[in-house]
Design a protein that fits this description.
The structure is a homodimer. Helix content of chain A is about 45%, strand content about 20%. The first copy, chain A, has about 350 residues and is of the alpha+beta class. In chain A, the strands form 3 sheets. In chain A, strands 7-3-10-9-8 form a 5-stranded antiparallel beta sheet, sandwiched between helices. The first copy, chain A, has a 3-stranded antiparallel beta sheet with strand order 4-5-6. In chain A, strand 1 and strand 2 (about 65) form a beta hairpin. The longest helix of chain A has 18 residues, at about 215-230. The radius of gyration of chain A is 26 Å and the shape is elongated. The relative contact order of chain A is 0.13. The interface of A and B includes residues 139 and 162 of A. The first copy, chain A, binds a DNA duplex (30 and 30 nucleotides) through helix 2 and helix 3.
Chain lengths: ~350, ~350
DNA sequence: GTTTAGCACTCTACCTTTCTGAGTGCTAAA
DNA sequence: TTTAGCACTCAGAAAGGTAGAGTGCTAAAC
């Protein structure tokens, strides 16, 4: 059975009010704050009906109603009006993102800060995913005999480096030649197709100097792990402890559960990935309360979207807030940040 | 007026009990848990006296006593017995620190993790201070025309890199020559003595290629900022949200105040620096409650110590916990970690 | 059929009161 | 100087009482 128009309005009004106050909403309060052209008794009937249908719940008999996960879901799917960002706010975000950046990491940090400040919730920005990047450069720089800095540059503007050890009688020339050979053989190859074997083949096909097999393999192995390590997603998260001021987290147990999960970047990154796959075609992905399969986030909602680098789907940005979140506002804020990122990363 | 022996014992016992239970300690409980050879009435008199002298306070008339900041101070200065770490625990820490590390950052991260896990409080590990390091290498690596990765290597094993932009018609050879010249001129120089002028002088003295002055200056400026940026202390902090499970932070307001301050790495680093200077000769530095001049840490205590690189004072590690901290245990843990670091960084 | 007024009912939040017991300080004797 | 004893204090738990926000249901009105 579908919701009739008035029930929709009622649900929408209840979500709006609850978001604003974090207090259960009663029929009287609803009449007071909105111009329903009916009496409170009618709303009471509607609310009872909405509860029966699972859109609302009652903390206890003599309290008002609060939205259930299903209620929020209906709200974000079809009830809320997505409002445009105010010009002032747009300008503010723009300013925060007008950093000059040489590495994508800097831009993402700025984006994460802007999102956290603007929404007041927890923000998230992740470096581009490996599936969408390929190797463009590999450099090996001898820092001191036996110690080499491997610099990996990926297509999406990601630069990673890692210090490795090699036999200390190798010269800068020798390792430069090896890295050149590997670079030549692998550049343009998606990260997912790079393996120890492809690295070795590349080196042998393009290399000019002669080196004992075992020695060469050791260097190649280090190069390979450095490349593989570059595909680790970096996660920039900000504003975590702002959640402590929300009434839903006044219980430190809950807050701790949330923080425990959030402190595992990998968990969060993996979840975002999963969600992105599920909702592939959507402009933004929303997960509400129990829909989130991460522990400790049952009272939260999660909104993410993807940004593009050079026109291709790259990484994710997002916001984690209470279920009682200002959805439409947050969505427009995320969208705006996404657009800004896309533009800056068009190249 | 000095404390007589029994009063010392009483104070010590009260601190021990309060640390263990977080409940005000009364005269009866004290008799029950310790073998004082006197009656509770006698202890009551002593406790009243200790309160008059400022070592104890009473939350309210009919409650037991808790240590004041002054009481804790007396405790750590002369009452507590610093116990040796158990072999088992030593082994555990050793294992956590037995990472192979190529950059000091990795080792410090491991140290911070070990400290947090072992103490159950907040741990801190900071990269070596600039005053104790000098430049050993400067490399510039062209990533693509106009984009150069500047790698700065400092004496203490710190490696930092930064992407910068330069005019895009400069070749790898040209910038390599410039960086070589600067490296030659500056290597061995303490970071504090490096300025834009010394950089320029170094370049001009050692450089062979001819470049227009303005162009050269632009590159030098980027090199200079990269070097200067390398002296930023990195702070590794772990276990923050464990504080939420302590009764003293069950009030989210307090927890938020603490987290707000701790989220500013610079503040904390600056404070550690200050404390280190004040207590220059000491093996470890302790600050208790109000003694800490950082906002939001009035209910905390702060224990730091310094580790050495190549036998010279370098950076700091430390622990932030509640005032009601197991001081002697934490001190021996920190000491052990410090010793391990010193050994690994002897080189 | 839908809406509404009216009413009895429910239940939390809050306040007040009472009670308990841990802990105190003081006094007077040992 | 120490101790037993006692009156006193006060936070916190327990119990009782009230207010009011909110409900569901019924029967009348539209």
């Amino acid at each position: 059975m579908a919701l009739d128009n008035r029930k929709k309005e009622v649900l929408q009004a209840i979500v709006d009010d609850y978001v604003a106050t974090c207090e259960p909403v009663g029929s009287k309060a609803l009449i007071d704050r909105h111009d329903f052209m009916v009496s409170s008794a009618t709303l009471r009937n509607d609310m009872a009906e909405l509860e029966r249908m699972g859109y609302l719940e009652q903390p206890h008999t003599s309290a008002g109603r609060i939205p259930s996960d299903k209620g929020y879901r209906e709200y974000v799917n079809s009830l809320m009006k997505v409002d445009r960002l105010s010009d002032a706010e747009g300008k503010e975000i723009k300013e925060k993102l007008s950093v000059s950046f040489d590495e994508i990491a800097e831009l993402l940090k700025a984006a994460s800060t802007a999102l956290a400040d603007q929404t007041g919730y927890i923000s998230l920005a992740m470096t581009p995913k490996l599936t969408s990047s390929y190797l463009t450069q590999l450099k090996m720089l001898m820092i001191e005999p036996g110690k080499v800095l491997v610099v990996v540059v990926l297509s999406a503007g990601v630069v990673k480096n890692r210090m490795v050890r090699i036999p200390d009688f190798l010269t800068q020339e020798q390792i430069a030649q090896i890295s050149n050979a590997v670079e030549q053989g692998l550049s343009g190859l998606p990260l997912s197709e790079i393996s120890l074997i492809t690295v070795a083949t590349a080196a042998k096909d393009n290399q000019k100097v002669e080196l004992p097999e075992a020695l060469l393999n050791q260097v190649l192995y280090e190069a390979y792990t450095a490349i593989k390590q570059a595909d680790n997603l970096d996660v920039y998260m900000q504003g975590k402890h702002r959640m402590l001021s929300l009434p839903e987290f006044s219980d430190t147990k809950r807050a701790q559960g949330l923080f425990d999960t959030l402190s595992h970047d990998g968990l969060v990154a993996g979840y975002v990935d999963e969600v992105t796959k599920q909702d592939e075609k959507k402009e933004y992905m929303i997960r509400i309360g129990q829909e989130i399969t991460l522990e400790g986030l049952d009272d939260c909602s999660f909104i993410t979207t993807t940004y593009n680098v050079g026109g291709k789907v790259a990484g994710n940005i997002g916001v984690i807030g209470p279920k009682r979140m200002e959805y439409s506002k947050v969505i427009s804020q995320i969208n705006f940040v996404r657009m800004m990122l896309d533009e800056k990363l068009k190249q």
